[in-house]
Amino acid sequence: MSYRSTSSQAVSNWLFIVALMVCGMILVGGATRLTDSGLSITEWKPLSGAIPPLTAADWEASFRLYQQTTEFQEQNSTMTLVDYETIFWWEWAHRQLGRMIGLVYGLPLLVFWLRGSISGHLKPRLLALLGLGALQGGIGWWMVASGLVDRLDVSQYRLAVHLGMAFLILGACVWFGLTARTGPPPVRQGRLVGAAAALLVLVFLQIMLGAFVAGLDAGRIYNTWPLMNGQLVPEDYLAGLPFLQAIFESHAAVQMNHRWTGYLVALAVLGFAVAIWREPRVALKPFMVILPALVIAQIGLGIAALLAVVPLGLSLAHQGGAILLFIATLIATWTARRAM
């Protein structure tokens, strides 16, 4: 094996490790949201914030800052310092994992760059990905800041931007990891290439709709299936809002849209699987089974989480299912572009 092929494999492995860490980051972020921990740290300290409170006085000072938030004053006014420590650690872990990802991405990038291990095709893309990672940290604080005053939670719009950026970074890590290992895929036209790309966009859209469900706690209402409290379309779908506003701010609308887009994803996956079955390209055949299996499991987890009123374990499993479905669809898109 040549040095170039060995170094390319090392770059690929590094990007896949970063992708795995981003998956963990998304799950910890989900747990932070589900446990209402996201507003527990009210200051943005990218470097010094890596050190948590170490003394009783430090903990008291941090708790006093949280007590100034609307969330504490209107929702958690009976919270003790011990209770606060629990939610603090979730948010701290989420931020700390972000710092670790920055190091695990940035330092090897510098080493690989100086060694000449990164192809010219990937260099500008990996630099852009570094910039996206830095931007994501700023977006995270922008999101948290939206919930510190006059709100009990962060803005669902900013939450969706934050989650969307996380999935874009995840997708880039996987795509560039494949590129480093095998070279960039050719720009190949074809029915399956377009179908795979469209399915990937649809899966991403469904994930964004899920972000609005999480941001509004919309999974805590209409905990019935297949109907929504006996109705196909809930009577408060618009909630007295204009349509374009309702689809992002009405709890009923947000949940219904997420439900029905999930069914649409399932139909699209089924159609894609049939298209693969009719194709002679062997490389795509595994996705004929993988994608339907993942989407069935994901719908099952979503229904179970809804009926159980979004417990932490089931909700995180549902989020994990979204990650797996997104990655599998992205790899299917990659494979469709390369397969002869």
Automatic annotation (TrEMBL):
<feature type="transmembrane region" description="Helical">
    <location>
        <begin position="289"/>
        <end position="310"/>
    </location>
</feature>
<keyword id="KW-0812">Transmembrane</keyword>
<feature type="transmembrane region" description="Helical">
    <location>
        <begin position="126"/>
        <end position="144"/>
    </location>
</feature>
<comment type="function">
    <text>Catalyzes the conversion of heme O to heme A by two successive hydroxylations of the methyl group at C8. The first hydroxylation forms heme I, the second hydroxylation results in an unstable dihydroxymethyl group, which spontaneously dehydrates, resulting in the formyl group of heme A.</text>
</comment>
<dbReference type="Pfam" id="PF02628">
    <property type="entry name" value="COX15-CtaA"/>
</dbReference>
<keyword id="KW-0350">Heme biosynthesis</keyword>
<dbReference type="GO" id="GO:0016653">
    <property type="term" value="F:oxidoreductase activity, acting on NAD(P)H, heme protein as acceptor"/>
</dbReference>
<dbReference type="GO" id="GO:0046872">
    <property type="term" value="F:metal ion binding"/>
</dbReference>
<feature type="transmembrane region" description="Helical">
    <location>
        <begin position="159"/>
        <end position="180"/>
    </location>
</feature>
<protein>
    <recommendedName>
        <fullName>Heme A synthase</fullName>
        <ecNumber>1.17.99.9</ecNumber>
    </recommendedName>
</protein>
<dbReference type="GO" id="GO:0005886">
    <property type="term" value="C:plasma membrane"/>
</dbReference>
<feature type="transmembrane region" description="Helical">
    <location>
        <begin position="316"/>
        <end position="336"/>
    </location>
</feature>
<feature type="binding site" description="axial binding residue">
    <location>
        <position position="258"/>
    </location>
    <ligand>
        <name>heme</name>
    </ligand>
</feature>
<comment type="similarity">
    <text>Belongs to the COX15/CtaA family. Type 2 subfamily.</text>
</comment>
<keyword id="KW-1003">Cell membrane</keyword>
<feature type="transmembrane region" description="Helical">
    <location>
        <begin position="192"/>
        <end position="216"/>
    </location>
</feature>
<feature type="binding site" description="axial binding residue">
    <location>
        <position position="318"/>
    </location>
    <ligand>
        <name>heme</name>
    </ligand>
</feature>
<keyword id="KW-0479">Metal-binding</keyword>
<feature type="transmembrane region" description="Helical">
    <location>
        <begin position="260"/>
        <end position="277"/>
    </location>
</feature>
<dbReference type="GO" id="GO:0120547">
    <property type="term" value="F:heme A synthase activity"/>
</dbReference>
<feature type="transmembrane region" description="Helical">
    <location>
        <begin position="12"/>
        <end position="31"/>
    </location>
</feature>
<dbReference type="GO" id="GO:0006784">
    <property type="term" value="P:heme A biosynthetic process"/>
</dbReference>
<dbReference type="InterPro" id="IPR003780">
    <property type="entry name" value="COX15/CtaA_fam"/>
</dbReference>
<keyword id="KW-1133">Transmembrane helix</keyword>
<keyword id="KW-0408">Iron</keyword>
<keyword id="KW-0472">Membrane</keyword>
<comment type="pathway">
    <text>Porphyrin-containing compound metabolism; heme A biosynthesis; heme A from heme O: step 1/1.</text>
</comment>
<keyword id="KW-0560">Oxidoreductase</keyword>
<dbReference type="InterPro" id="IPR023754">
    <property type="entry name" value="HemeA_Synthase_type2"/>
</dbReference>
<feature type="transmembrane region" description="Helical">
    <location>
        <begin position="97"/>
        <end position="114"/>
    </location>
</feature>
<comment type="subunit">
    <text>Interacts with CtaB.</text>
</comment>
